[in-house]
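Quick one - inputs below.
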Amino acid sequence: MKLRTLTSMKLGAALAAAMTVTAVPASATECIAPSNPGGGWDFTCRTIGRVLGELGLVEGNVQVTNMAGGVGAVAFAMVAAERPADEDLIVATSTVGVTQMAQGRYPAPLETMRYLAMLGADVGVIAVDNDSPIMTLADLTAAMAADPSALVTGGSSGAGGWDHIRLLMVADATGTEDLSAIRWVQFDGGTDAVTQMMGGQIAVVSTDMGEIAGFVESGDIRVLAALSDEPIPAFPDIPTAISQGVDVTGYNWRGLYTGGQVSDEAYNAWVERLETLYNSDNWQEAATSAGLVPIWRGGAEFEAFVRDQAAIMEQISRDIGVIQ
Amino acid sequence: MEVLSLIGSGFLVALTPLNIGLLLMGCFVGTLLGALPGLGPVNGVAVLIPLTFAFGFDPTSSLILLCAVYFGCMYGGRISSILLNIPGDEPAIMTTLDGYPMAVQGQAANALAISGVASFVGATIAVIGLSLFAPVLARAAIHFGPADYFALYILAFATIGGIAGVDPRKTLLSALIGLMLATVGIDPISGVPRYTMDNFHLYDGIQPIVALVGLFAISEILLLLEKSAKDRPKAIKVDRWMPQWSAIWPTRWAMLRGSGVGFVAGVLPGAGASLGSFMAYVFEKQKSNGKGTFGKGDPRGVAAPESGNNAAAGGALIPMLSLGVPGSGTTAVLLAMLISLNVQPGPLLFERQPDLVWGLVASLYLANIALLILNLPMIGIFTRLMMTPTWALMPVVAAVTFVGVYGISNSIFDLELMVFFGIIGYIMRKLDISLVPLVLGLLLGGDMERALRRAMSISDGDWSILIASPISITLYVLTVGFLALSVWLAVRDHKQTQAERLTEG
Amino acid sequence: MTGTSVRLFGAAVFAIAALYTLQADTYQITFGDVLGPSVFPIIVGIPMMILSASLVVFPTGTVDWPGRDRLWRQAAALAVFIGYVLVMEQVGFPIATAALIALVGIIMGGPPWHAVALGVVFGPGLWALFDQVLGLPLDFLGDLFG
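Output:
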């Protein structure tokens, strides 16, 4: 009896020893997507992770972790508290995240992190169903100015989030007095908002182009305006808001941050790696086919850009009444 | 007949050696992941995504592998529900209600066989629905607005009182506790943290899988410890190793009804497999519980929810593929993978990538057959698991649940929460309060609240929107009818027992 | 007395539900969300209070709590679970899991040596299954040794 137990113990020990030898280090680089799978941040992490691996810029695979909650606040809090100096960690963020920071919705200020780079941007669009009587941006803004509560609008952010603010910026620029009277409905993603609009639940969607491009191509929805300086390359026929006399742009750039105590050396190495990635065909192709416009800002330039944008966003939020 | 030729072309895609190999591997891994408590389809699929990148499979092969894992998980979840009274994943909770009692009565082989065949029937019906009507159904599902979803959840929770236990108040209270727990975390609409006690681990809310394994697995061990080792049966007796056809055949209508209900729930984005299996069980019980055998090991109580959750899993692929809207956590992961492989699901997918869609459909038919063939012979092996003495089986099960939860979240806090839920689960079971409604409340509560708040945002605060659409009115009428029927049946049974008592006395 | 446990449970849930409902009222926002974050918790909290109060007044069912020696075993098992959670990151996954399986096995009345052997096999075994086969990274040695 005892002998048998001893044997099995020895076996176990041998097994354990064998494993220590073969144990590979758990993949070193990790990208946190602060959302559930499927959204823009998830795309950022998965695509960047894949391309980093393809180009051999990191060892092994990049492990993508989904840490949803509070529009990025959960991941932000976790990195601030537990992994501020982790040099193998990158986290996806975007205009949406900076909007939240500017409105004080994250548990720590913007400066808690170091911002690495932006690699592309999605363009905001305002769309209606193809059966809608609203034919142009002017129709929409006139209707909103006449009765702000008449139309139900929606998108993928909560009240006061980036999708909402972009729409309010358009309304603000075209003479709508009571911005808070515009009805806004939050959905879990741009696609959800569009399908609910096709089902007749809401009248107008404000969200990013990338996620809903399929519905534009299929003719299910009509895009009234692209909130970009130049027409979107893939959809040259869609007029910009500027070309219709409404001076509003609303990009949603995609970028990455890392912990605030990461060394300059590691920070610079990341910026360099991401620039190589940005210039690769792999990234350019993946970004364009996902509806992004590739744009590069990295290192100190990007840090300054994020700060400026947060300041602007805070001002807009205050003007519109999202924060006091 | 166009569909037939499309499916035919799909089989040409599916029947390459690589795809068949991936399919079989996916089925096997999926069944294993589903059977391990703590790991479900969501993480099962997520775990395998890096693998598809590493080997550079094309999108079609990747999707075939991951969907096979997905379907495999849905088959596998039932195994520990039936044998251990611990659901392998969320959609398998309903299977504990009658599956475990069947196992205790020595009917483990039959319960596994019925649930296996039911899984096959449900999933196959869903795949047939997917191949014939996907675009049409997706177009119909978009007419379901926030107010209609709210009505659907009201129907679910109003009927919850009937699922288990003697005292409907306790069942309802359990559901409300679940709904309460679902509100913990940062509110996605307003960004306000609620009930987080300033602990950032709670910002993301309470993960249903953590509550699920804590409530069922830890409490099961505490319950077993009540009995001294010699009182406790060494292992559950097993009357037979192999299932009997005569036990399976009578549940055929329950399987078909369950498949129908589950499929509808699956097609609606946001309802998902858990709601599918729950509704399938409730409707089957209402229809067939003439002799009060449900909850005590009625085979139909195993067949309905298992066909329901598998049909819902298949149905959830419809909005994912043809609208790009994920109907459940797992389809959200599948969607993410497709997007990162440069495939954009949506209204044009069927036209632009017929190879991918029809190759997937064909593989799903094959996966179902493979899973049925794989699962039936395994019944004998799994049933022998019941012979393992409790002192050896349960500690390993506990370890598996701890590892499963930790391996996904890497969070010690989640493990602490799991032990805490174990204590709650033990107390509730001692007080004869069913745990199933709590888990359902936690799973569906967030969506229920968001549906209500979206409806109110649309109407600008006018509550009448909740009963403004034909769909929601129909659902409320169903709810009232259901409740009235339950009350009537309860009164009738009460009179009957009284009458019997009188004649006996 | 029958029903005491149910009454106690009802009272505890009532207290939690009352706190929950009161707390809900503090979640106010100023902009753009019609119903706000406070209404749904109130919709859940009030029926919870009613139902739990009704359990206090009209309890149903009888509860058969285990004897003192059994309670000790349950407490020991819980202590093992909590200890496992606390030391797991320090001593690493296989060792902690081996100890967990062995100790719970013994508490459940298994022959001690068999329980230990089971732990020694399954501790590293589960680590291998999750870390090596499924690719969910788990610490092998932990902070103390690693």
